[in-house]
Amino acid sequence: MLNDLSKFRIFALMLVLSTFAFTGCKDDDDDLPIPLPKTKVYELESVADPNIEGTATFVRLDERTTSITILLTGTPTGGRHPAHIHANTAAEGGPIVISLEPVNGTTGISTTIVQTTDAGTRVTYEDLLRFDGHVNVHLSQDQLDVIVAQGDIGQNELTGKSKQYALNEKDVPGISGSVLFEERKNGEALATIKLQNTPEGGIHPAHIHKNSAKEGGDIVFTFNPVNGSTGMSMTNVAKLDNGTPFGYKDVLRYDGYVNVHLSETQLNVIVAQGDIGKNAD
């Protein structure tokens, strides 16, 4: 992802080893090898600023203690960027659960020792790797609504499996793109719609419908609307609008299609459309 990512990971490993050596050193006459602590690295993608991205490294120090180190590139010198672990996926958003040390803009680094949530609930390394959450790094304390880097963690981590479907031009010439479904560790999916040539400032509702596009059918799943200025929409896929469980594997075998509409008041105007699941095979 990053040109400097390998350097970051080497640096993170050095931090891990130095911390472990300090907290777990043995007598000189003990020849037994010292096991490396458990480590998990999550990617933090750019959001508001395409130049800022990096990683969050979780290290198990002991059965009660986890070290979390954020390493970013592209942060402005002198900046101070609040960071938190939030509940839910990044696509859904959620409240702050664990406050992390702010990222130093000059170094791009933040390290936090974690034993509990902000509410005082004990949380272990293993708990964090199962957690339904995401990490946000914000522009400043006064601008928490501006997220400079973000990444899903725990059960929301992506497995690397994905399926992309074409969204073809329909009623508005020149608008087309794709919808990408990526599998999460918990079986849910991240859906990313990307369209070209959407009008600046537009808000375009998007849905999964029953049946093939040729047949037509009712809405069964509602995506977050496509932002016309970026042409993008990101949505967590876990259940249909009626509450029926609906994850990554369900998408791949579903009898359905995707419509992206011109606006909430003009749902009859379809700007892009494409079959998914078994209809696209």
TrEMBL record:
Keyword terms of this UniProt record: Signal
InterPro entries in the cross-refs: SOD-like_Cu/Zn_dom_sf
SUPFAM superfamilies, sorted: Cu,Zn superoxide dismutase-like
Query: In the record, which residues are listed under signal peptide?
Result: 1-23
Entry keyword Signal = yes
Lineage: superkingdom: Bacteria
Family, similarity comment: Belongs to the Cu-Zn superoxide dismutase family.
Q: What name does this protein carry?
A: CHRD domain-containing protein
